[in-house]
Amino acid sequence: MEDPRRPPVILIANDQEWSARSLESIFAGEGYSVLRAFTGNQALQRAEASRPDVIILDRQMPDLDGVEVCRRLRADPRFGATTPILITTAGQAGRPQRLEAFGAGAWDFVGQPIDGEIILLKIRTFLQAKQAIDGSHVDGLIDPATGLYTKQGLVRRAREIASEARRERQAVSCVVFTPDLPALESALLSVEAFAQEIAGFFRAAGRSSDAVGRISPLEFGVIAPATTENGVARMVERLENATAAFSDPAFNGEGRISLRVGYCSVADYSDSPLDPVDMIERAGAVIKTPIEARPTT
Question: Hey, which of 115, 170, 243, 288 would disulfide with 165, CB 3.0 to 4.6 Å?
């Protein structure tokens, strides 16, 4: 566990000495520990080695630009969406550039000249958010391998979604799925690879309103507000398309897997006696039932 007494570490990646030193002086003066990188590849290496609390990338670097570095960091499960990444630029800072930065996973896009007081306040807020997320990891609510909820975390989030759905008289659905591959039970590395594939799918294509959790090493659950049975069918179709190309020797020779899916859907949650835990258990029970014995409704 990290020492709570150590100062937060900020990695600044910028090949322009004046801009980098200006940022360094702002943060060092407030007690932050500052690391420097001068190229995109060097930023990736130093981020991997030091696991900084905040990363600030210049958009224009000689090898990889800041947007590409941000995109690669977000694809790394060790960073995911939980590490604040800011992109700065001395060039164009219009809507297209902002959209590109936010699409790559940046928390903020900052044009120059940089207002030192404002960026310090932003970093303080971002660090508070990161600490709250890290606290969820410690409390067992987040699966560290994927960044998805654990079963405990999914239940907690499901209760929040259910409460809102009851007030708004919305539909709520729960989907539980697992790869249909008995041999995969012993292939732990492949299990983690598949889990990260699923996490990547939901980061890229999932809805922010959905709660996604890892119930067990091979089971994943989604609590989807305002989603009926038709919406469940569309979600499953997208999942099957996303996992169809997943390739690993432990899965099978064709590099293709199938999913077993169970769900529990309520059209108007305000009229339902089901607790979110009941929905998760019912959806999970379906995938454990032989197909020929499953109920038709």
Answer: 170
